[in-house]
Amino acid sequence: MISKTGVVGAGLMGRDIAGLLANAGYAVTLVDVDDDALDAARHYHERKLPDELQASGYTVSDRPADRITYATEYEGLADAEFVVEAVPERLDLKRDVMASLEAVLDSDVVVGTNTSSLTPGDIAAEMNHRDRVVLFHFANPAIHRDLVEIAGDDATDRALERATEIAEAIDREPIRLRREYRANGLSRLSASIKCAATWELLDADPAAIDVAATRIGFDRGPLELIDLIGLDVHLATIDNLAVTYGDRYEPPAEIREQMDAMVSDGRLGQKSGEGFFEWDGDECLIPEPEDPHDIQPILAALVNEAHRLVTDGIADPETVDEILQRGGDSEIGPFDVEEMFGAEPLREVLERRHDETGAAIYEPVF
Questions:
Q1: How many angstroms separate the CA atoms of 117 and 114, rounded?
Q2: Domain locations in the chain?
Q3: What is the dihedral of CA 294, 295, 300, 302, to 10 degrees?
């Protein structure tokens, strides 16, 4: 049993991961170089964390905030027995974090990476003990989505088992992927529907697309999802994925230009109050469209990506369905969608949209 844990990165994901660990009874040191980020995380843990936990069905364990300490130096993690990095999706930054951790941690301490667009192998490439690093990827928001994806082609069995134990201890469902791949499972499924939605923007406005998505059972529409994580983060993720997947997840050129301009103007989504939609705090203000857009191209892209995950050896169809159900708070998975709509009609939609757009996201693989 371990008692002391650490989290690097006090952003939205990092603060929630720290909160989950603390609520499970672990002592947590949350590290960030930004004092303001640490102050904001402390305020969140003290004032809002209990309500967030209760809203997700957790029993609040005394005062979890009392088990969290805050530090700007990595030396605060010297006695940690398990550490999670949750810093922005920049390979150079994540490698710097790993070098700093390796300088203070014992050689057998397992490090989980919450990366959504890189791999443990990418991140650990320059470390002396690369086999200690595992994928430990949460869905967003971490407290409200019952999933942690775990993988690591170079990780030891002990490291993978330790990560699985921690996920179970914080009451998240650990899903072991068969191999590591950029964007794991959930992020690739999410990227497919977000990319397809940007192509559908050529023919429809954001509200028409997202309302159609929610009416058939999506918890949020794909463009609201982009707003939620931030347009800047979304575009950085696309650029990371291009290293492995080329232009598969790239928006059409004119939409990419619009999104870059939105970022330059500070219209980042929820965190700035405006993106594809206006936001009132945590509430996305989506106007009622005159006519919802045809959602089949987005569903077809989702099913197509699910088949790619199976072909790439990441997971079997049942696990792919579970990833979306747990990570997307959905009653159905992509292969359920295929069964509902039929493989042949979905393939015809892909072929039609691929002929019309040339977009790689629509190129049929099943």
A1: 9
A2: 4-176, 185-366
A3: 160
Angstrom distances, CA of residue 169 to CA of 113, 148, 176, 302? 17, 12, 16, 31
Tell me the average pLDDT across 165-170: 98
The answer to whether the beta carbons of residues 84 and 136 sit under 8 Å apart is yes
- Segment 200-205 mean pLDDT: 96
Taking alpha carbons only, the member of 224, 195, 188, 219 closest to residue 208 is 224
What DSSP state is assigned to residue 274? B
Dihedral of CA atoms 307, 309, 312, 316 in degrees, nearest 10, equals -90
- Report the top-level CATH class of 185-366: mainly alpha
pLDDT over threshold 90, residue 309: yes
What are the tens digits of pLDDT across the range 350-363? 999 999 999 999 99
Amino acid at 55: A
pTM check: above 0.90: yes
C-alpha–C-alpha distance, residues 251 and 132, integer Å = 36
The structure tokens 């605060």 sit at 76
Cα separation, 50 vs 178, whole angstroms = 35
The token duo for 136 is 């430990």
Cα–Cα dist 235/215, whole Å: 27
CA dihedral 200→202→205→209, nearest 10 degrees, is: 0
d(CA 283, CA 55): 16
Distance of alpha carbon 223 from the chain centroid: 15
> For residues 141 and 198, what is the distance between their CA atoms, to the nearest angstrom?
22
The residue-averaged pLDDT of 295-309 equals: 98
Whole-number pLDDT of residue 1: 73
Topology alike, domains 4-176 and 185-366: no
- Looking at every residue in the chain, the average pLDDT score rounds to 96
Whole-number Å distance between alpha carbons of 188 and 182:
8
- Record the tokens describing residue 3, joined without a space: 């008692």
**CATH class in words for 4-176:** alpha beta
